Amino acid sequence: MSPRKNRRVTPQRPPGGSFREQQTEEGPDGEWNVRQVPGANATKHYRCPGCDQLIPPGVAHLVAWPADGFGDADDRRHWHRPCWQARTRRGPRVQRTRDAPRYG
């Protein structure tokens, strides 16, 4: 008798070939469409608006854009997942030059 093979069960891919689950999230800053981007599908560098750091290729993250129905590709933003969850607790990030006073 040959040994039993454990086969991994994989979900069926939807037409179009990718797992793009889009959901709508309501928050104090409005209603947003949010889509998860798996690391295998992340092929470019993006800058997270929450921490102002680069999201390198291969890192899972999410894409969010306003759910008002008028958003286009220019309105989409790529976020680290923790930065997106903390967006309402953070103040706006102020860009300063190297010689600018830190406080005042």
TrEMBL record:
Region annotated Disordered, chain positions: 1-38
Residue ranges with Basic residues bias: 1-10
Query: Which named protein is this?
Result: ATP/GTP-binding protein
Q: Which organism is it from?
A: Actinomadura namibiensis
